[in-house]
Amino acid sequence: MCVVSAKFFPDVGWVGVKNRDRNYIPEISFKRQTHDGVEIMMFWDDITQYCEGMNSGGVSIISASLMVKDDEMEIQVRSKTPSKDGAKIKRALRFPNVKAATMSLIKDKLPGNTLIFDKDTCYLLEGCWEPGEYENQKYAYKVMEIPQDQSVVRTNHGIELPWAGYQPEGKQHQNPSKSHTMSRLSSESRYKIAEAVINAAKSPQEMIDGLAGVHIDNPQLNCLRTTDKKKLMRTTSQIMVTPSENTFAVRPVQSHMTFNFWDLNHPKNKCWVEILSNKALYDARKEMGTKPFPKMQHSSE
Q1: What are phi and psi of 190, to 5 degrees?
Q2: Is residue 297 part of a domain?
Q3: Sequence-distant (≥ 6) Cβ neighbours of residue 95 within 8 angstroms
Q4: Which residues contact 1 (CB under 8 A, 6 or more apart)?
C-alpha cells in the first residue's frame, strides 16, 4: 500500500515522489546494471526482491499496488526468487525512453498504479487482473499521458479501473472483510490528502516533505502512515526521483539501508543516489503538537 505522485516544474521537469508502505521492516540496498549502454539504478528490497528505479536516459518508474491480495501477503519472509513485478519493472528500465518502457510494462502485464516518466513526459498505467481472473491473470489496463499543467496522484484503489484495488463496503471482489473496507477508507483519505499536497507544492522538496506531514488525527489515514505495532501497514520509506538531475533520493523512515557511499556516487556513474534525513518527520509532528514519530524496533537492535 503506497502513495505515488508526479508533478511538472518548469525549471526542473517531471518529479516523482512515493511513500512506500509495508507491514515489515524492509532491508533496502541499491543495485546498478548496464544493458546496451543504458545504466539502470534500482532501489532494491532485499526481503521481497522487489525493485523500482531509474535509468541513465532519465526513465523512472514508481508504482503502488492494486493487487491487494498480494500486497498484504508481504511479511517477514525472505524471498529466494525475484519479485515478479520487480522483474517487470527492471526489464522496462532497460528502455531509453518513456513510451518504450510503458509498452514493455503493458506487454508484461504489470498490475498496479504505475508512473513512468522522464523530465519531459509522464505516463500513468493502471493495470490489474479482471474481477474473478486472479488465477488466470486476465489483464486489463488503462494508460494515459499526463499533461504538464496537471499533477497526478494514485494510492491503492483504481480510478480508471474503478473495480481494481480496495473497494468500498459491499463491493469487494477479492477480500470482503472489515479490514478491506478500512483499507479503502485509508486509500481514499491518502489520495485526497496527497492530491492537495502535490497541487500546492511549489518545489520537489515541498512534495516529499508534504507527504511526510501530519494532516489528520488517525495515523493510518495520513499519507505517511505510522504505527509501532507489528504486521500493520506503515510508511517505511519515501522516494523522490528527479530525472533532469538523474537523481534518486531516499528517506529511509523505517527501513534498514545498506550502501557504499563512494561506490554508489562514483563520478563514473550516470545515476545518482541521495539519502535524506528523517528530520522532516519529527519537525512535522513538533509543529502539529503531536507525539514524536513512533519507531519500530529494527531486527538488528
Answers
A1: -65, -35
A2: no
A3: 38, 55, 57, 59, 101, 104
A4: 21, 64, 65, 68, 71, 155, 156, 183, 186, 187, 225, 233
This prediction has a pTM of 0.92
CB 257 within 8 A of CB 28: yes
Q: Does residue 296 lie in a domain region?
A: no
Instruction: Determine, yes or no, domain membership for 299.
Output: no
Q: Which amino acid is at 131?
A: P
Domain count, the chain: 1
259-265 own/partner pairs: CB under 8 Å, 24+ apart? 259/29, 259/30, 264/30
**Ordered DSSP codes for 30-67:** EEEEEETTEEEEEEEETTT--EEEEETT--EEEEE-S-
113 phi and psi, to 5 degrees? -95, 105
Residue with cell 497541487: 199
Number of H helices, E strands in the chain: 7, 14
DSSP assignment, residue 243?
G
pLDDT tens-place string over residues 127-173:
999 887 777 779 999 999 999 999 999 999 999 999 998 888 656 55
Helix, strand or coil, per DSSP, at residue 123: strand
Chain CA centroid to CA 296, Å: 20
List pLDDT tens digits, range 258-298: 998 888 889 999 999 999 999 998 888 877 767 667 776 65
Structural domain that includes position 218 = 2-288
**Domain assignment of residue 294, yes or no:** no
CATH no. for residue 184? 3.60.60.10
235 DSSP β-pair partners: 21
